[in-house]
Amino acid sequence: MSYSDTATAGLPNFSSIDTSAINSELDKILKHNNQRIDQLLAENSLYTWQNLVAPLEQLNDTLANFWSPVSHLNAVCNSDELRVAYNQAQPKLSAYYTHLGQNHELYTAYQQLQRADLNSAQNKVLDNALRDFKLSGVALAAEQQRRFAEIKLRTSELGTKFSENVLDSTQAWQKHITDVQQLAGMPELALAAAKQAAQAKELPGYLLTLEFPSYLPVMTYCDNRALRQEMYTAFATRASTAGENASQQQWDNSPIIEELLALRKELATILGFDSYAHYSLATKMADSPDAVLGFLNDLAQHSVTSARAEFATLRQFAAKWSALEQLQAWDVGYYAEKLKLQKFSISQEQLRPYFPMHKVLQGLFSITSRLFDFQITEIDEFDAWHSDVKLFQISRDNKVIARFYLDPFARANKRGGAWMDVCRTRRIDSQGELQLPTAYLVCNFNAPVGNDPALLTHDELTTLFHEFGHGLHHMMTEMQYADISGINGVPWDAVELPSQFLENWCWQPQALSIISGHFSTGETLPAKLLDNLLEARNFQSAMTMVRQLEFSLFDYRLHLEYQPGESGVQPLLDQIRQQVAAVIPPTFNSFQNSFSHIFAGGYAAGYYSYKWAEVLSADAFSLFEEKGIFHKETGQLFLSSILQKGGSEEPLKLFVDFRGREPDTEALLRHSGIVL
Q1: 156-186: string of b/e by CB count within 10 Å (b at 16+)?
Q2: What is the total count of domains within the chain?
């Protein structure tokens, strides 16, 4: 095994990506891969790891390394030209992977591999491959295979279009305000950001958008109820024709949702599954729909009464505070902030000066370095896609073991939300060369305003820790085979374990003393603010719980119960809200039309994974509560049992290896302030 001495060796050259050449380059790679696969099958009669699996992994890694920066740029620097090239490439990639999964000769070759000659990691790769062949329709009749391929292509196209519609409808709306009185109650930082946005477009006054750093302060702090209603309506009807969007049919995701559901149902049926929900479990920890629904309904049973009591308290507070007769959806965040401030003397904006980005990063790196025994250093010179982007490397024993990009701030033509994605996967090639794992960490925080540094809320701090937890799962792996390296091969309902696990340090006084530092004085979070923050941790936690349960039940039951020809999306969502919701939104709310996690991401029939993995993460952290949050041996045990193992073993076994027993929901409910 050898390590490169060059800090940026093997990383993408983003500035040299020629949009006009993307598809011609892709065509060359796909043609070479297909020819080489045919050659591998033709020149061998006795198949081994070295003459079949290893060269196939190299082919797919070459393709992944070409496509990764293109796909990433499409998400963070979207343009008309790139979008066209990306959409032209999608059918080719879909066809390639479908053909690979349905290649019966290749499937037979994998079946012939002698397990006796393989180690446990290789056997796991083989097991996953044989499973995935079956899930790709390798055993189907020719006509069914053709239809399967059509469905995979069309669902890929629909997912991309869904995401584009959300982005376009988000960016199409803006509100220009010249009278600052209309923004009364807004924090100074939010006003400064809105003013900076207006100046960027050579406008006087203030500019509001539906990007979250602009939208959230209005909904939380703005006294102007009519403006809150206007922005809520615009946000809640994105990618739909509801509200005032009747003329925006070109961005309406409603027909996409219906077509996606029908195609997913058909795909599952072709493969012999009762529903897409059943199909999704073939690669997850949960073993049946009953297990998933039982889990979600059990959490609901413990949470709904408390959540509705919390909402009743909020309604009473709003009535007393401003004689509000009816608390509407656009009032909830505003009055919740007022109630929280009254009860705990704490607000996210009070905390923001104590979490400047540079100090937060220092604290994050310090904490994880203590836990997992590594060092993080910044790389100053590298090829970036935007001036906001930073590049870091992680070292242990003076050897670089991983790298990651950080793209923290919201901007135009960048997808909303926060995520970790794979840039490079750790693997060792046939020459013994190590490919360093490299991650993209992407957030959408407020950029620096004026001469001040970027300042995070505590919620944003938690988001950053969450995504870095995903990054650690990808980067700390010691697996040498791509298919089980990092997050690869990890069941989707276990992949959130490291991310949610790392969030816990955002609530520990010892950790917060390291993370926080006032941007002008350097003072750590004062004791009074810290006490108030911790006391307010479970403010409306039951309402938060049932909101996630609403999303999870909607997603899973939608994919479990959907029948073609029945337009049951909104009725099902209404029914679930009656069952578990504390806040019933107005009828024009079209939340599902921008629910990208399940219609344009990897969470279809899997959104429950957040709660499923949260049980694992809360219970895992409970061992640190027992031993100490910086207990080195426990950190090393988590590293060796979970992070380094990637997808090489079943997650339940890995959890038991760490915790010494199977997971228990008690820790999650306790952390949420919900009493059993």
Answers
A1: bebbbbbbbbbbbbbbebbbebeeeebbebb
A2: 4
What is the C-alpha separation between 637 and 427, in angstroms, rounded? 23
| Domain's final residue, options 570, 590, 607 | 607
From CA 391, how far away is CA 471, in angstroms rounded? 13
Q: Does position 606 have pLDDT exceeding 60, yes or no?
A: yes
- Which residue bears the tokens 């070109």? 250
Residues paired with residue 207 on neighbouring β-strands, in sequence order? 176
What confidence category does residue 246 fall into, taking pLDDT thresholds of 50, 70 and 90? low
Separation between Cα atoms, residue 489 and residue 651, nearest integer Å: 10
Reported as a single tens digit per residue, the pLDDT across 619-667 is 999 999 999 999 999 999 999 999 999 999 999 999 999 999 999 888 8
In a shared domain, residues 306 and 429: no
Q: Is there a single domain that holds both residue 523 and residue 485?
A: yes
Residue 159 lies in a domain: no
Same domain, residue pair 220 and 311: no
CATH number for the domain spanning 82: value is: 1.20.1050.40
Question: What mean pLDDT is predicted for residues 532-558?
Answer: 97
- E-strand ranges in 73-218 read 174-177, 206-209
Domain boundary (573, 607, 641) is at: 607
* Domain that includes residue 204, residue range: 174-250
**Taking the CA of residue 675 as centre, how many other CA atoms within 13 Å lie in the half-sphere pointing to its CB?**
1
Amino acid at 356: P
Question: Among all residues, which ones are annotated catalytic?
Answer: 467
Q: Which amino acid, residue 192?
A: A
pLDDT at 254 over 60: yes
Q: Check whether residue 563 and residue 666 sit in a common domain.
A: no
Q: What is the pTM of this model?
A: 0.95
Q: For residue 459, what are the contacts with CB-CB under 8 A and spacing of at least 6?
A: 348
Q: Is residue 5 pLDDT above 70, yes or no?
A: no
* CATH number, domain with residue 336: 1.10.1370.10
Q: Measured between alpha carbons, how far is residue 660 from residues 54, 92, 221, 631, 664 in Å?
A: 35, 46, 46, 17, 12
Residue 344, pLDDT above cutoff 80 = yes
Residue 285 has pLDDT above 80, yes or no: yes
Q: pLDDT tens digits for 350-393?
A: 999 999 999 999 999 999 999 999 999 999 999 999 999 999 99
Q: Are residues 601 and 616 in the same domain?
A: no
Give CA separation, 128 vs 58, 61, 131, 283, 474, in Å.
17, 17, 5, 9, 18
How far apart are alpha carbons 403 and 405 in whole angstroms? Answer: 7
Whether the pLDDT of residue 675 is over 70: the answer is no
CATH of the domain at 441: 1.10.1370.40
> Are 476 and 393 contained in the same domain?
yes
What percentage of the chain's residues is helix, strand, coil (to nearest 5)?
Answer: 60, 10, 30
Q: Find out whether 477 and 401 touch, Cβ atoms under 8 Å.
A: no
Same domain, 530 and 417: yes
Q: How far apart are CA 646 and CA 495, in angstroms?
A: 10
d(CA 579, CA 561): 17
CA distance 278 to 135: 12
Q: Is 162 within a domain?
A: no
- In this structure, the answer to whether residues 309 and 359 fall within a common structural domain is no
72 lies in some domain: yes
pLDDT above 50 for 4: no
DSSP letter for each residue of 441-487: EEEEEPPP-TTSPPB--HHHHHHHHHHHHHHHHHHS----SGGGSTT
Residue 167 forms part of a structural domain: no
